[in-house]
Structures
1.
Amino acid sequence: MVQKAKILLVDDRPENLLALEAILSALDQTLVRASSGEEALKALLTDDFAVILLDVQMPGMDGFETAAHIKRRERTRDIPIIFLTAINHGPHHTFRGYAAGAVDYISKPFDPWVLRAKVSVFVELYMKNCKLREQAALLRLQIEGDPGGADHEGEPAGLLAELSARLAAVEEQAEALSKQLDDESADAAAVATAAHLERKLTGLRRALDALEPGTGSVGLPS
């Protein structure tokens, strides 16, 4: 069973959270509610999230302050944040959102189809990153447990071949996703995130190639 990604929804108004859940339910992922910035930060202490939808105007800790705390934490600083706001004070206000670390800034009322499409891109990138980390961890465990290499009837070589094939499938999906983003004239943040994933894939491919017999070994990308 493929593990579902978690999406954090942060808004102080229950009706807004309900609307977001209705829009994103079609993605079939795990939706987690938070009614304040403090509650969102608490959820981020224990769970990993693919993307955060964060309301700007909240009593107490607003969206900008919440985002600042998220970006200061090593565990959470790379999680994409999409700001949602019911007000629009022009370019300066939007710039403040991006300066706080947001990958996108959407004004309410927003198009449900657009929001769902944007969130789905980050969920897909998150799932590919998870798969990449799992394969890298599997390779590390195999190498650490079998430093002798060929002493165990060529099992490491077989594992390398299997991982190389799996990586090729992920590389193909990432390339197709990048082309799709280009074709749909996606926002720059999503394109940049896809490019970051492709760089990670390239690093892992080089590491796998270097582990082939006769080429020595190198450290795997984190």
2.
Amino acid sequence: MEILDGFSFKEVVTSFMVLFAVIDIIGSVPIIVSLQQKFGQIEAGRAALTAGAIMIVFLFVGNKILKLIGVDVNSFAIAGAFVIFVIALEMILGIEINKTTEAKAASIVPIAFPLVAGAGTLTTALSLRAEFHDINIILGIVLNTIFVYLVLKSAKWLERKIGDATLMILQKVFGIILLAISIKLFTANFAQLVQNYINF
């Protein structure tokens, strides 16, 4: 098959590692456990498959979709930064902004998007396509999807092992980290957006 012609084990590993670092599902464990406590059982398969599908679809049609609706990548990333900002505030302040009460809904938003397949992940996938063959990026996404599923599936076990006191501390710490990521994502893309308009 023509699509397999560009297969490279090195590119698969590199794609996996780059996306793994951006997704940071291990670092998101306190967030996942917090959402599970809030919504009940999270549908791991639904969340992982949705996130994987979003990443693969966006890999091929991301730029076209954004151009079609008149949105650039930087604006898209800024929107994702706002969503991450809200999640971080919930974790740090212990307030409830997202009023969704269904676990199914939580599996899609905010877990599948933007926690896993967020603006950073999607824009990273697009940037990888400029350097690597599609098949290798797809395999990297599939491997990450499997890993995300395993982590989500183990959330109950992780919750028991972590403990309430430790979990509360971790939620605050990771909430601050998440807040910092959202601010960094916002400032970097806002600066690029301003620069684009000035050059225009």
3.
Amino acid sequence: MKPAKPAAEMTMKKVAIVIDDFGNNMEGTKEMMDLPIPFTVAVMPFLPSSKQDAQLAHDKGHEVILHLPMEPVRGKKSWLGPGAITTDLSDEEVHKRIVAAIEDIPYVIGINNHMGSKVTADERIMKILVDICKERNLMLLDSRTTPKSVIGKLAGPQGVPFSENQLFFDDLYTYSHISKQMTRLKKLIHERDTVIAIGHVGPPGKKTAQVIKEAIPSIQKEATFVSISQTMKRSTN
């Protein structure tokens, strides 16, 4: 039998789970909200249940972030939903849309990107986003939909707290794929002190919630579940 890890070493390891795509009465919303761990709720703006989902998350003690729709390299703009940030917008329009989205969701403490492989690599637009986060004391989670993202590069020097996603649970919607990704997460816990993973409500929502629920006891033997604010870096140095 292996000796148990000292408590101090165990509590240093952190796992932060972020669940995206709340705001549109998506499938799996109840199952996610019923999970008995802290996690972070990312709510899309201007949708039928945006305010309601943020309120419910807050009432359950979860951190709320804005899940801001941003243009991808591939894909249709129509997939993004209302108020999306696209590369053809002027600086003023980008600023206006980001502020309106922040103000649409109650209890927001930060922002992450919905899609956004094109926009998060665009320094002009990301500078506007970082400046708004600095003004409003918001943190930034880079969902890492592209390795070309400049969020960390711009947020660090401005002192805006930021962190980066390391794993998507449900980029494929099958139970077997989501389970494999959970196995990857458990391996990552051995390799680093903090692991951040993103799942979704919507088509995979119930399956993702089930996989997370089943994994809670084994993860808690090695790490502590935390909210996204406890993973933030303040500088790239």
4.
Amino acid sequence: MATVLSVSGSPSATSRTARLLRHLDARLRAQGHEVIPFDVRTLPPEALLHADLAHPAIVEAIAQFERADGIVIGTPVYKAAYSGLLKSLLDLLPQYALAGKTVLPLVTGGTTAHVLAIDYALRPVLHSMGPAHITPGWFTLDRDITVADDGTLTVAPGPTEALAQVTDQFSLALGGHPTLLAATG
């Protein structure tokens, strides 16, 4: 199966975005994919700030993008756009870092007024990096993502179904098996 890099662009250690990605990572693993979680916030701030392409953490991040067959990009919405942290990473990647890759964009936000952030802010940047395919993405409202005291994630029923569908479409684009998808749905 495919290797998937699951990228969280949230600056928060308790991010709903990152938790949602880890939830979807489990679905992709159940479908036979190798999933590598990557939280941009773990990169050294000085390496991002100074665009230090020789920094070992940046070199490794670029290598992870190169090794992956598919990339899931998750970000919270800030000021109707993706996070500045994600922008810092995307700016450091080679121009065609997504060449030949299948990409799934996911966005979380506090209001439906930000739903177009996927298509008008994130998708154009991803497209400029040369992916083979950008699958339909999904915007999830913060209020539809609940984290219990024990860390268990619950997503409201409507978004759960939609997220399963876009994740499965991404998996199929990577060569996933439809019968396996139905069994984990």
